[in-house]
Design goal:
CATH superfamily of the largest domain: Galactose-binding domain-like
CATH class of the largest domain: Mainly Beta
Distance between the termini: 71 Å
Radius of gyration: 31 Å
Helix content: 25-40%
Number of domains: 3
Strand content: 25-35%
Number of strands: 28
Mean pLDDT: 89
Shape: globular
């Protein structure tokens, strides 16, 4: 190849001129042909060019791999070991503007991501530093060997060349954004911006465009492939990024039509009137009493995953203590990510995730009064159920029911709900072998083993993607028609930053499945992306967390969202907290909504009838009434059915009132806070004095003591011991954080 810059430019001018004469099919990349003139384009390429030129204002550029759908597919081949296959298929019936595609399957677990590649060499075209190209592809993620893995690919544009020592070399990747993609289950067009970098030392440079497909055992579909060369234009990589690489979604704007309606519904369905009556010890109304109405917990489930793979084998470590404390500060409902599935429960996952570590974690959740859900009783993947398919139908069914009964009965009375049937659409493997009716027996077994737990069905590609919506709806209808006892519908919400479902569409899905008349939950919520170095992705992730939570909280059929994205110990950009426990922007957005915008802290004085009225979000509250030297508190659940909350001054209420100690001659012991029985104590070794009043227990009396003494010198001079919310100071927020710690 001639790498001289002037010759390169002259060649481009020549190609452009003959293209204008209608002769561009005679010159190009190998037998495929670089295409400039529109008359040599098929319908897909013509439409693509019109979109880029008419709608985006870009120049035409040159199609490097040719102007038909088939030409690029012929140029690309799937390379790797025997575990990789490539199959061309007709997709003309799909709702996309392409007609053919290549299905790439990797059936083994690859050694690395580049063990399998989908690669198209460019045989007669050279490039110079600064040249700009645009890759285009329709992608669809079909399957992975494990639901815990994502379908992934990485785009690359590189030179293969000969090093000075005669060995083969490969340049760095020149795809500047975005390189990594996790394709969803629906077709989506992706753009890949390429800027040619400086060539390394060597010779015989051959450029190529490729996609790594060896991230895991997986199936990916590729169609609508194109590579457009803008090198003889004034187009820059930055301009292409600005025009084409966007993580926007319909309804993101502050003035989006769905948003105000959602806020109005939240005010209507998530809030209720609160009326507080203050009485004296004789039952008389107390006018002009000061009343504080302070929320401690939501009625709506803002839950989170509890991931034993991170702390299960180091439960007593400092990091595990930080994990548990921070978890409690964020979530009001828990679920073990994997430990209750059959395979890890059976001990196949090692020391961190097994039945013993699961039991310990569940007991901790229950000890902290955290409502807990089980995940999952049935998942019809043979290995996950530890079942050999080479058995009789009866034997297989007996094993499934035994697997259900064992785990459900062990936690009978402990769990508020179970994912009874997980991935029923994605993996119907066992039913396909032994018959659909077996599922009805599985549901009955679950109900018999854990009658107090709500039984959920749970599936992906319902809100994050749409490919399973119809069959999921049909399956739920069949279960209900056959009295299986479906008591909740779960949606796995693993959203990819490149394919975000518009909030209005989420609401329509909630409408549709809400017709079944049982609660809905987003059971596994995260917003996934490949890097946090792209500010546009980071901003879109935070906005989408805001909008998914808003849509869910605004819908009357939805009862909870379980965040599947708590702490990042291993480089996962989806998680709220980084490795050093820094809260990321989307985590800040989560906390802003849950603990600020949708949080109630009101205060005022009683009227002549001793009543103070306000409204607040439904949940658990601490209500404090004060008149002169008398103060009383109550911890109450407030919902639509809550009547007037009565707070009686001067009366012990076992969580309700506080005796007036103004005439008590008992002296405060040395080291104790005013009104305390002894020096504050750290009962659990976390460095914080949850036994504020020093009586040896942690209970509501400690909440009162911290509330009354939070501004005292004794507390402020030792702030770290009372900083329960971790914000660096001591205030009312720490009283609420201690309440959540003690009374969840």
């Amino acid at each position: 190849m001639n790498d001289d810059g002037d010759s390169h430019s002259d060649r481009r001018t020549f190609l452009k001129s003959i293209g204008a004469l209608g002769a561009s099919t005679a010159v190009g990349t190998g037998a495929i042909g670089s295409v400039t003139a529109d008359e040599h384009l098929d319908q897909y390429h013509r439409t693509l060019r019109e979109e880029l030129t008419d709608e985006r204002g870009l120049p035409a550029g040159e199609f490097v791999y040719g102007g038909t759908e088939k030409a690029p597919l012929d140029a690309f081949s799937h390379n790797g070991g025997e575990g990789g296959t490539e199959t061309e298929m007709d997709v003309s019936a799909d709702d996309v503007p392409i007609t053919i595609a290549d299905r790439l399957q990797v059936t083994e677990t690859p050694e690395n991501a580049y063990a399998y590649t989908y690669k198209g060499s460019i045989d007669d075209r050279s490039f110079s530093q600064g040249d700009v190209l645009l890759g285009v592809a329709y992608l669809r993620g079909v399957d992975t060997a494990s639901a815990d893995a994502e379908v992934q690919t990485q785009a690359g544009f590189k030179w293969e060349y000969t090093n000075p020592d005669g060995s083969t070399g490969y340049s760095s990747n020149m795809v500047v954004s975005p390189a990594n993609v996790s394709p969803g289950s629906d077709w989506q067009r992706h753009y890949f911006v390429v800027e040619i970098g400086e060539k390394p030392d060597g010779s015989e440079f051959q450029p190529f465009f490729e996609f790594w497909t060896g991230f895991t055992a997986q199936t990916i579909d590729f169609g609508g492939m194109a590579l457009i060369d803008y090198s003889d234009t004034d187009v820059t990589a930055g301009r292409l990024n600005e025009l084409l690489v966007s993580y926007d979604y319909d309804g993101r704007g502050a003035d989006a039509q769905w948003r105000q309606a959602a806020h109005d519904r939240i005010e209507k369905i998530r809030k209720t009137d609160v009326e507080v009556e203050v009485l004296d010890g004789d039952g008389n109304a107390v006018a002009d009493a000061d009343v504080e109405v302070a929320m401690a917990e939501h009625a709506f489930d803002f839950g989170g995953e509890f991931t034993l793979s991170q702390i299960g084998d180091r439960w007593d470590s400092d990091v595990a203590e930080t994990y548990r404390r921070t978890w409690l500060e964020n979530f009001n409902k828990g679920v073990l990510t994997n430990a209750l599935k059959v395979s890890p429960w059976s001990g196949e996952w090692g020391e961190a995730v097994n039945a013993d570590t699961a039991r310990r974690a569940i007991q901790w959740l229950l000890d902290n009064d955290v409502p807990t859900r089980g995940h999952a009783l049935v998942w019809e993947e043979w290995d996950w159920m530890n079942i050999d398919a080479e058995q009789s139908d009866a034997a297989i069914n007996d094993l499934v029911t035994e697997r259900i009964r064992t785990r459900a009965s062990e936690f009978r009375g402990d769990f508020v709900e179970w994912d009874m049937h997980n991935h029923p659409i994605w993996q119907p493997n066992i039913r396909e072998q032994i018959g659909r009716e077996a599922a009805l027996e599985w549901w009955q077994t679950a109900h018999d083993a854990a009658p107090d737990a709500q039984m959920y069905v749970n599936e992906m590609n319902i809100i994050a993607g749409s490919s399973y919506r119809d069959p999921y709806d049909e399956f739920i209808t069949w279960l209900m028609d056959n009295d299986a006892g479906v008591e909740g519908i779960g949606f796995m919400g693993h959203f990819d930053i490149t394919n975000l479902t518009p909030p209005a569409e989420l609401l329509s899905v909630f409408d549709r499945f809400g017709e079944h008349g049982v609660p809905l939950q987003i059971t596994e919520f995260d917003v996934q992306m490949d890097t946090r170095d792209d500010e546009a992705k980071v901003e879109a992730q935070a906005d989408y967390v805001r909008d998914v939570l808003t849509a869910a909280f605004s819908h009357k059929a939805v009862e909870g969202v379980m965040s599947w994205c708590f702490w990042d110990e291993s480089g996962e950009p989806k998680r709220y907290y980084s490795e050093d426990w820094t809260l990321r922007p989307h985590g800040e957005e989560y906390q802003r909504l849950v603990f600020e915008e949708w949080w109630t802290e009101e205060s005022g004085t009683t009227d002549g009838d001793g009543v103070y009225a306000t409204d607040g979000f439904k949940g658990t509250y601490t209500i404090t009434a004060t008149d002169g030297d008398q103060t009383a508190e109550r911890a109450v659940e407030i919902g639509d059915d809550t009547g007037t909350v009565t707070v009686t001054l001067g009366e012990s209420d076992a969580g309700g009132g506080q005796k007036d100690d103004s005439d008590d001659e008992t002296e405060t012991p040395p080291g104790a806070l005013p009104g305390g029985e002894g020096p504050p104590q750290d009962l659990d070794g976390d460095g914080r004095h949850e036994d504020v009043d020093g009586d040896g227990d942690a209970d509501i009396a400690d909440l009162r003591s911290l509330l009354n003494n939070r501004d005292s010198g004794m507390v402020q001079e030792n702030a770290g011991a009372y900083d329960f919310d971790g914000d660096g100071d001591v205030d009312a927020g720490d009283v609420l954080a201690l309440f959540r710690q003690l009374y969840r």
